[in-house]
Amino acid sequence: SMLVRSSASAKQSVLRRNFSSGSVPERKVAILGAAGGIGQPLALLMKLNPLVSSLSLFDIANTPGVAADVGHINTRSQVVGYMGDDELAKALEGADLVIIPAGVPRKPGMTRDDLFNINAGIVKNLASAIAKYCPHALVNMISNPVNSTVPIAAEIFKKAGMYDEKKLFGVTTLDVVRAKTFYAGKANVPVAEVNVPVIGGHAGVTILPLFSQATPQANLSADVLTALTKRTQDGGTEVVEAKAGKGSATLSMAYAGALFADACLKGLNGVPDVVECSYVQSTITELPFFASKVRLGKNGVEEVLDLGPLSDFEKEGLEALKPELKSSIEKGVKFANQ
Ligand code: NAI
C-alpha cells in the first residue's frame, strides 16, 4: 500500500509539473545595477517571483556576493551574478526583461536632473549592450532622470536599428505607489483598494497624480488635493532628506520596480487586462514621451490609454509640466546624438 500511494503521488507530481511548465514559460530577467541600494532588494523580490526562471544579476562590483546570497532562496529561478563589463554580454543574452537601476542616486539638495552627467553615460552604455545582446527584451528604466534616460535609450536603440517603442518603459510605479498611500491616508479608505493614475513624467512638477479619478472616491477639499499632489511630487525628496546623504528611495522603489516587472511578465505571458502607468513613447499629448496608463501584452505596450477626464486643477498641472518635460526629453535626445 505504501508503494501504491507513493507511485500515485509521484504520478500526480509529474502531472503537476507538466501542467506548470506548460502554463508558466521560462523567463530570464536581468537586473543591471543589481548590487545597489535598489538592486539588492529588487533582486530579492524578483527571486520571489514564480514567473522568473532565470535571474541574472549584473553590476560593476559586488554581484558575486548578492547572487550567492539571493541564490540560496528556495524559489524557482536560477540566479547567476555577473561583474564588470566583460560579463555584460552573458548577463544579457536571452533576457526577456531587463531592469535598470544602475547609476548614482540623489543627495539632499539635488534634483534628478543633477544626476544627468553621470547617469546618462551609464544608460547609454547599457542601452548599447542591450541592443547588441538582447534586442528583443522589454526594458524597464529606473535610473534617473527617467524623463531623459528613456529618450536616451530610445535614441541608442534607433541608431542600432532595433528600436521598438512598445518595449521601452520608464518606471513611474513608485509615484503611483506613493499617490495610493497618501490618498488612502487622507480619504480614510483601505489602501489596498486604492487606485490612482499618475501621468506626465518622473520629476517634481512633471509628476501629475489624477486624484479626480482615484478610487474608491472620496470628497476631498481643494486644499487637501493640492497638498496630496505636492506630496506625491515631492515624495522622492522626502526620502532623500530623511536619509540625509545616504541615498534616495531604495526599498519602496524595489517594491514598485518588482510590481511593474511582474506586470510586464504577466503581459508577456498573455495575461489579459494588465494595466499600469508608465513613461513610454506616446501620442496622447504633443510630447514624444509621456507617462499614462498602458495596457501590457505579449509585445510590451499593447495600448497607451488616454488620460480620461481631468479636473481644472489637473488640466493646469498638465499644461504646467509640459515645458520641463519637453526640455528633459530634448536634453536626452541631444546627449545620445552628440
Ligand atoms: P546605488 O548607488 O545604491 O546603486 C547603484 C548601483 O549601480 C551600484 O551598485 C553601482 O555599482 C551600479 N552601477 C554604476 N554604474 C554601473 C554600470 N555601468 N553598470 C551596472 N551597474 C552600475 O543607487 P540606488 O539608490 O540603487 O539608485 C539607482 C538609480 O535609481 C539612481 O539613478 C536613482 O536616482 C534611481 N531611482 C529611480 C527611482 C524611480 O522612481 N524611477 C526611484 C529611486 C531611485
TrEMBL record:
<feature type="binding site">
    <location>
        <position position="106"/>
    </location>
    <ligand>
        <name>substrate</name>
    </ligand>
</feature>
<dbReference type="GO" id="GO:0005759">
    <property type="term" value="C:mitochondrial matrix"/>
</dbReference>
<dbReference type="GO" id="GO:0030060">
    <property type="term" value="F:L-malate dehydrogenase (NAD+) activity"/>
</dbReference>
<comment type="similarity">
    <text>Belongs to the LDH/MDH superfamily. MDH type 1 family.</text>
</comment>
<feature type="domain" description="Lactate/malate dehydrogenase C-terminal">
    <location>
        <begin position="172"/>
        <end position="335"/>
    </location>
</feature>
<keyword id="KW-0496">Mitochondrion</keyword>
<feature type="binding site">
    <location>
        <position position="253"/>
    </location>
    <ligand>
        <name>NAD(+)</name>
    </ligand>
</feature>
<keyword id="KW-0520">NAD</keyword>
<protein>
    <recommendedName>
        <fullName>Malate dehydrogenase</fullName>
        <ecNumber>1.1.1.37</ecNumber>
    </recommendedName>
</protein>
<feature type="binding site">
    <location>
        <begin position="142"/>
        <end position="144"/>
    </location>
    <ligand>
        <name>NAD(+)</name>
    </ligand>
</feature>
<dbReference type="Pfam" id="PF00056">
    <property type="entry name" value="Ldh_1_N"/>
</dbReference>
<keyword id="KW-0816">Tricarboxylic acid cycle</keyword>
<dbReference type="InterPro" id="IPR036291">
    <property type="entry name" value="NAD(P)-bd_dom_sf"/>
</dbReference>
<keyword id="KW-0560">Oxidoreductase</keyword>
<dbReference type="GO" id="GO:0006099">
    <property type="term" value="P:tricarboxylic acid cycle"/>
</dbReference>
<feature type="binding site">
    <location>
        <position position="119"/>
    </location>
    <ligand>
        <name>NAD(+)</name>
    </ligand>
</feature>
<feature type="binding site">
    <location>
        <begin position="33"/>
        <end position="39"/>
    </location>
    <ligand>
        <name>NAD(+)</name>
    </ligand>
</feature>
<dbReference type="GO" id="GO:0006108">
    <property type="term" value="P:malate metabolic process"/>
</dbReference>
<feature type="binding site">
    <location>
        <position position="59"/>
    </location>
    <ligand>
        <name>NAD(+)</name>
    </ligand>
</feature>
<feature type="active site" description="Proton acceptor">
    <location>
        <position position="202"/>
    </location>
</feature>
<comment type="subunit">
    <text>Homodimer.</text>
</comment>
<dbReference type="InterPro" id="IPR022383">
    <property type="entry name" value="Lactate/malate_DH_C"/>
</dbReference>
<dbReference type="InterPro" id="IPR010097">
    <property type="entry name" value="Malate_DH_type1"/>
</dbReference>
<feature type="binding site">
    <location>
        <position position="144"/>
    </location>
    <ligand>
        <name>substrate</name>
    </ligand>
</feature>
<dbReference type="InterPro" id="IPR015955">
    <property type="entry name" value="Lactate_DH/Glyco_Ohase_4_C"/>
</dbReference>
<feature type="domain" description="Lactate/malate dehydrogenase N-terminal">
    <location>
        <begin position="28"/>
        <end position="170"/>
    </location>
</feature>
<dbReference type="InterPro" id="IPR001557">
    <property type="entry name" value="L-lactate/malate_DH"/>
</dbReference>
<feature type="binding site">
    <location>
        <position position="112"/>
    </location>
    <ligand>
        <name>substrate</name>
    </ligand>
</feature>
<dbReference type="Pfam" id="PF02866">
    <property type="entry name" value="Ldh_1_C"/>
</dbReference>
<keyword id="KW-0809">Transit peptide</keyword>
<dbReference type="InterPro" id="IPR001252">
    <property type="entry name" value="Malate_DH_AS"/>
</dbReference>
<dbReference type="InterPro" id="IPR001236">
    <property type="entry name" value="Lactate/malate_DH_N"/>
</dbReference>
<feature type="binding site">
    <location>
        <position position="178"/>
    </location>
    <ligand>
        <name>substrate</name>
    </ligand>
</feature>
